[in-house]
Specification:
The protein has 325 residues and is α+β, with helices and mostly antiparallel strands. It contains nine helices and nine strands.
């Protein structure tokens, strides 16, 4: 199994984003613990170092917003519209999401950029619906079709999941609440796949690694400034720089985090150097203490990773690949 150089991983991430399913080399090491579903995967070698209940289909709450934000970001880049365009909060959004969070009201406008911040940092449900409405509506228009923009957007979320190999996932809305006729579900392994895709994009890491952010709501011709905080309590701890939290009555405590260690530089015989990057992704579903469990799992994952590197990165059979996990 080859380690991945910096240059290789950056170029591969941009190609994988649109044209192929992410293949993840992995060795699942089941461990005895609570009813949580967990996966700890090395982001560059794509090897799972710790896992338990990783393929169980579960409610994932706000972790669904990882797909929401990525579909919106991918749309902004592919359409060349960008993230500075204003989107309007649809009339029906508060009826679905309630009035919590930023207290966004029908007719309010925010940039796509600020809506992604609100979706990922503060897990605002109205923001995620507004993203879905705007992007889904634009996508239908470009296809020359009529239809429900939310349905179209959710279709894109599920297409993203399929493309990244998250075949045990079904999204039914952009916010992750269990208030649709068919409840959404995923697995720890699938959320890990989607998280790996998200953190392969520097733009998305920027959206998720800030503790607070000043946003602007355009309301009735006036600008309303608001500040949001990040729900991820582990930001900045043990080099953790993302990604998303979730907590609903059905999902329990959920979190997807990532952390990067300093790169290693190896001199080559020809005088050149090879840079190896080290990033770990941890997914925890259904935990009574998601932050404590995730932090402990990160330490356990790094210990297993270091032992694996010292052993020469062995991969001995196909069951070590996540697509066969």
């Amino acid at each position: 199994m080859q380690g991945a150089t910096l240059q290789l991983n950056v170029s591969k991430a941009s190609k994988v984003a649109w044209v192929t399913i992410l293949g993840i080399a992995a060795l699942a090491a089941p461990i005895a613990r609570s009813q949580s579903a967990i996966v700890v995967v090395d982001a560059y070698n794509k090897k799972v170092h710790v896992a338990a209940n990783g393929n169980q289909k579960r409610a994932v709450g706000g972790l669904a917003k990882i797909a929401t934000a990525m579909v919106a970001l991918d749309w902004a880049e592919a359409s060349k519209v960008g993230v500075n365009v204003l989107a309007t909060v649809p009339v029906y959004a508060p009826q679905i999401a309630g009035v919590a969070g930023l207290d966004l009201r029908p007719g309010d406008q925010m940039t796509i950029r600020d809506l992604i911040y609100a979706t990922m940092m503060s897990s605002d449900n109205t923001a995620s619906i507004t993203l879905a409405d705007f992007v889904g509506r634009d996508h239908l228009m470009r296809l020359g079709r009529q239809g429900d923009p939310l349905v179209e957007f959710v279709r894109q979320m599920n297409a993203l999941a399929q493309r990244e190999g998250a075949i045990s996932t079904r999204f039914t809305n952009p916010h992750g609440l269990e208030n649709t006729k068919v409840a959404p579900y995923s697995t720890a392994a699938d959320i890990a796949r989607l998280t790996l895709y998200a953190v392969s994009r520097p733009a998305m890491r920027f959206y998720t690694n800030q503790r607070s952010r000043d946003l602007t709501i355009y309301r009735g011709g006036a600008k309303v400034g608001v500040q949001i905080g990040n729900t991820n309590q582990l930001l900045g701890v043990d080099r953790i720089d993302g990604v998303k939290t979730g907590n609903t009555p059905r999902s329990g405590g959920c979190v997807a985090i990532c952390a990067e260690k300093p790169s290693s530089v190896y001199a080559q015989a020809d005088g050149s150097s090879v840079i190896f990057r080290h990033r770990m992704v941890v997914v925890v579903l259904g935990s009574a203490d998601p932050f404590g469990e995730a932090r402990g799992l990160l330490a356990q994952g790094w210990a297993a990773y270091d032992q694996w590197l010292a052993a020469g990165r062995p991969v001995t059979d196909r069951k070590q690949l996540l697509q066969y996990y």
